[in-house]
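pipeline stage [seq->struct] | target=Protein kinase domain-containing protein | organism=Rhodosorus marinus | residues=358
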Amino acid sequence: MGDDGTFEEDMELADYVPTRFLGSGTFGKAFLAVDKRNGNKVAIKYMAKSDFSPYVFREILIHQQLQHPSIARFIELRLTKTFIAIIMEAADRGDLFEYVFERKGLNDEEAFWVFYQLVEGLAYMHAKGVAHRDIKLENVLLSGDGNNPKVKLCDFGFSKRVGIDSMCKTVAGTFTYVAPEVLEKESCRYDGASVDMWAAGVTLYAMTLMAYPFEHPKDPMNNVKTAERILNVEYRVPKTYSPELRSLLRSIFVPEPNERITAERLAKQMRRHLPEELLTQAEGESSVCIQSEESVRQMLNEVVKECESEEFELLNDVEDLEITDIVDDGTEGFMDYKHGQGFTETLRSIRDLTSQAA
């Protein structure tokens, strides 16, 4: 499948009319479309069945189960002869990275509002036992009118179910957003929810100051120096930075994950400082998938049978594949937000340095 924006014949879906090419990536192609049944705009992500993997299975099933105003609504799953089509809520204002860039940074009020919605979405996910593990500007979509856009968290490719007896061990996400505990040792097992909160703090800093807090100001491309600053929790904010936002960062950028503020607690604190009209807007409507979990699971298992992939053969029971069957394997999953490159070698260098220092 090429990335030229061509709408292929096998992509046609009953009930949906494509209107615009949105982009392409490792997932395949995405198009804006209109639902002929109600006139609503939707986004459709197409992935070739040949690219299907256990991790895509997990991403789709987790996303289908998340129903919150701050999470891009999963509407339904469709299958064609060669494609998997994920239909979801369209966000008509692009992503937070674009929004911040166009506005040359957000003011305190805008940032507080956007960040509050992000934290509410994370609080919901964490209460459901799910860690996102790739929180960043690009994975926060926006919709609505005016200066109070609605947040729609998206891209659950690194998401994982976590709990008291289920810690994360795969290094996942985007390097400049990573928490210190992920860098510290080779055998690291970490709390995905705490790591989400650290990345949310980086997102808040970036949306207000248009910079990443832990990059070395004179050598931003040097990931080892970035890692050293992360481990030392070394960042700066200007004297003009608001006390409210400064306090938020201080509660998040805590090296010990057990002492880092949780999304639930932070959302409660922030709620006290928002007007009732915005809180009502944030609550929104319950977003419900029009397909049952069982229906989506059956469709995915159909694709599994078609794939005949060695990745799926490693799993014991294709007939009843569960999210929990897909476990972290310790694979390094860092992505460089600038180049999209893996960071296995960099990570080894960093861990060598930290072990020597210890």
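stage status: PASS
auto-comment: Residues 5 and 224 are 37 Å apart (CA to CA). The chain has a mean pLDDT of 83.
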